[in-house]
Specification:
Structural class: alpha+beta
Strand order of the largest sheet: 1-4-5-8
Radius of gyration: 21 Å
Order of helices and strands: HHHHHHHEEEEEEEEHHEEHHHH
Distance between the termini: 38 Å
Largest sheet: 4 strands, mixed
Strand content: 5-15%
Number of helices: 13
Amino acid sequence: MDFALTDLQRTLHEEVLALAGRYPPDYWLEHDRAERYPWDFVRAFAERGWLGTVIPEEYGGAGLGITEAALVLHAICLSGAGTSGASPVHFFMFPPAPVVRFGSESMKRACLPRIAAGDLVLAFGVTEPTAGTDTSRITTWAERRGDRWVVSGQKVWTTNAQQAHKILLLARTSPREERRPLDGMTLFFTDLDRSACTIRRIDKLGRAAVDSNELFIEGMEVPDDDVVGEVGRGFFHLVASLNPERIVTAAEAVGIGRSALRIATRYAGERVVFGRPIGQNQAIAHPLARASARLDAAELLTMKAAWLHDAGRPCGAEANASKYLAAEAGFEACDAALQTLGGFGYAREYHVERLWREVRLYRLAPISQEMALNYVSQHVLGLPKSY
């Protein structure tokens, strides 16, 4: 058993942390306030080739694994960038995953090199307001007409739609059947045609620099060549990328938690009340120590899940459990940090409140804590399915 990173992995983490560190907390504060997309940050990562971390080398990427992707996103979050920095990079890595695995050769040749270079920005259109977690009940409909499909429907929480050139879009192409409810959905990787869409930005708690949107689609034409994999098997093509995404979001949550702890421990060592540093008080020290220990545990399971995935071994239990633990540990760390700073923790200039707002997302997405526990209950403990 070897817990050491390889030389490549260690160097990758160090170099990403150094580059992300060039963008100080005030940079992210300004982008959060202005709801401004961090394009210069994204371009810097494109120049280093890190947007293509998991894209195969033959299509212009680095051809690395989920372990390396997790290290990249962990380092971004550790730098203090939070989800505002991680999400733009994340969206060059994971919406393309079904294309890498199931897309046609012409689709991969046309799109993947441009994604790896940072020239093609992607949105992700799966969630719907009336379906939520029950993806089988989406109502966005794609009707075949000759050599193309015509799509109409509604999506919600569509990240990057204000910026995107293309969208990975899940739609029904045949009616839902109770016997096989997840059949009959098709995955499209197509141009986001704004003449056939209304895009409405959602005003939300955190990550204001990166847009989340409602998407209203009315008669959008999609060429048959834009189908990813098999017609009617779109949900199953999408599922193949879910475990990797849960692993890297766990790494992000751990990184944000550690970033907040750095701010809090420095403050606790310097802030003097009643003649001594507040960090000398166990009421301050113990919550920070407990948060650190829980981040350590979450990170270990996250890296185990990444290792299992890259080794081609089953990792569903570890991916779901690590996402659950990291989301809890990351939020606990940010909350303990905010409490340590007291009133200053509530002030934007100290940057903890932004991390606190952003890390809360991981308890909701990309899968809720409850659904992660449902997976463990059913697939690890063998309990009856509850939904």
